[in-house]
Specification:
By secondary structure, the protein is an alpha+beta fold. The protein contains three helices and six strands, in the order ααββαββββ. The chain is elongated and about 105 Å long.
Length: 164
């Protein structure tokens, strides 16, 4: 570049353009990294919740009260129909009491919705009363919340139906 006033002006202009380009690339790069980080964080939570819901369904089918309780926080609340159980030991005992009266439980997950650390699941539930042999069927919607990878709130809305 020349030492003339016009050459110095063009040089300053060129440096300004280069600086603006560098700043723009840094901002765009930061935004891409930030967006990717958010997507990476939300995907594992969705997978984690899907795995938890599946574990719960299989644990009920397998009459595994310990596996059911393992997903709950120590002070969790479990509400189903007109029953409310607070704390992991009571939730486990509720499952054991259910298993005394029912077996052949089949849970079919219809859909899972995830919103951060909260979610909902729709599933159907079939079981058989041990004494009467009568089969039961229900459609169930559940709202839940997780903290530190454990269920702290689980609320079921159960609609008993005729067996299809």
């Amino acid at each position: 570049m020349s030492n003339s006033p016009i050459g110095k002006l063009n040089q300053r202009y060129l440096y300004s353009v280069i600086l603006i380009l560098i700043v723009t690339l840094v901002i765009i790069g930061s935004n891409v990294l930030f967006t990717t980080s958010i997507k990476a964080q939300s995907l594992p939570m969705k997978e984690q919740i899907t795995q938890m819901v599946t574990r719960q369904a299989r644990a009920w089918e397998n009459q595994d009260a310990q596996a059911i309780a393992d997903d709950f926080a120590p002070s969790a609340v479990f509400i189903a129909a007109s029953f409310e159980f607070q704390g992991k030991p009571r939730i486990k005992q509720a499952a054991l009491n259910y298993f005394k009266g029912f077996h052949n439980t089949v849970v079919e997950i219809k859909r899972i919705i995830v919103d951060g650390n909260e979610g909902a699941v729709e599933w159907t539930w079939r079981d058989q009363n041990r004494k009467s042999g009568k089969e039961g069927y229900a459609e169930d919607a559940i709202i839940f919340k997780l903290e530190n990878d454990k269920i702290v709130y689980w609320r079921e809305y159960i609609e008993k139906k005729e067996i299809p």
